[in-house]
Amino acid sequence: MMKILFFSAKTYDQQFFTSANEAFGFELKFMEVPLNKSTAVLAKEHEVVCVFVNDIVNAEVLQELSAQGVRLIALRCAGYNNVDLKAAEALGIKVVRVPAYSPNSVAEHTIALILTLNRKTHRAYNRVKEGNFALQGLMGFDLHGKTAGLVGLGKIGLATARILKGFGCRVLGYDIARPAEAESIGIEFTDLDFLYKHSDIISLHCPLTPDTYHLIRKESIRKMKNGVMLINTSRGALIDSKAVIKGLKQEQISYLGLDVYEEEADLFFEDLSSKVIQDDVFMRLLSFNNVLITGHQAFFTSNALEKIAGITLENIREFGKGIPLQNEVNIS
């Protein structure tokens, strides 16, 4: 029986993976601690470790995992920028991921951020709770007729485009590859400069790579419309937070919605309500009344968690049987 150790496991991970495992029969062990150089030794006697977005899987950690007998890293997410693939390959450790679990979950959360920032429903909710029914400061705009620019046209980007088209938006799209579905959805494929210049709303849906690191920085912000709405539900490091703060102060950016943050590993997925948060950049972002931040929850639907658990365990089953890994990640 294959033994799998889960790092950064929450109660919902245990719930959905335990349920999905009824069809596989693996031996599962869940630990709430994250994977890093100090905790890698806990993987002793496990062939497989299952990790999440903020676990550290660098060369040093991989060497320790290899010494403990680990032969497979199973990511229960789509992104793999936290894994040193070159080191994994050198050590003979395979890496698999969940490339698409529920694009609609992230797309719908993207729209939730857009609508909340625009119509200020979060502020209205708090006002009404206190008996304040004044409308001053709550004015929004019609999405119908606005131009939305999507950076990244994978499954999530395309799902977001479909929803925005339903609102009556003009949708611009940029990607390094041109998906066949883009034209049928009604996306106008363009370059980044055109997208920045003409978009009222810009939403990021691309992976984090050396080329996309700090894609949104002072130079790109200067090219955007005054009063632009910027949304990121992809990876935190796509945005240079200090440059965005400057853009907010200068009112180049009028709305900012984030579900991810570059330094989120020390913040997200934990209850820090009784502690003083030491991240000054993050606290500065929170100080703006036109900034809305959620704690990496765009993926968090029952549909997505069921898919994540099922695909992850199927990836592990393929590894155990020695058959081709459909969702393997490698440096090539």
Mean pLDDT: 96
Question: Biggest β-sheet, characterized?
Answer: 7 strands, parallel
- Beta-strand percentage range: 5-15%
Q: Using the alpha-carbon principal axes, give the shape.
A: globular
Radius of gyration (Å): 21 Å
Main sheet strand line-up? 8-7-6-9-10-11-12
List keywords for this structure.
7-stranded parallel β-sheet; alpha/beta; 332 residues
Strand and helix layout:
Layout: E1 3-6, H1 11-20, E2 27-30, E3 48-51, H2 59-67, E4 72-75, H3 85-91, E5 94-96, H4 103-119, H5 121-129, E6 147-151, H6 155-166, E7 170-174, H7 181-185, E8 188-189, H8 192-198, E9 201-204, H9 218-222, E10 228-232, H10 241-249, E11 253-258, H11 280-286, E12 291-293, H12 302-321
Parallel strand pairs: 1-2, 1-3, 3-4, 4-5, 6-7, 6-9, 7-8, 9-10, 10-11, 11-12
Characterise this structure.
With 332 residues, the protein is of the alpha/beta class. The protein has helices at 11-20, 59-67, 85-91, 103-119, 121-129, 155-166, 181-185, 192-198, 218-222, 241-249, 280-286, 302-321; strands spanning 3-6, 27-30, 48-51, 72-75, 94-96, 147-151, 170-174, 188-189, 201-204, 228-232, 253-258, 291-293. Strand 6 (147-151), helix 6 and strand 7 (170-174) form a beta-alpha-beta unit. Helix 2 (59-67) runs parallel beside helix 3 and helix 4 (103-119) crosses helix 6 (155-166). The two termini are 31 Å apart. It is built from twelve helices and twelve strands. Strands 8-7-6-9-10-11-12 form a seven-stranded parallel β-sheet, with helices on both faces. A five-stranded parallel β-sheet has the order 2-1-3-4-5, sandwiched between helices. 35% of the residues lie in helices and 15% in strands.
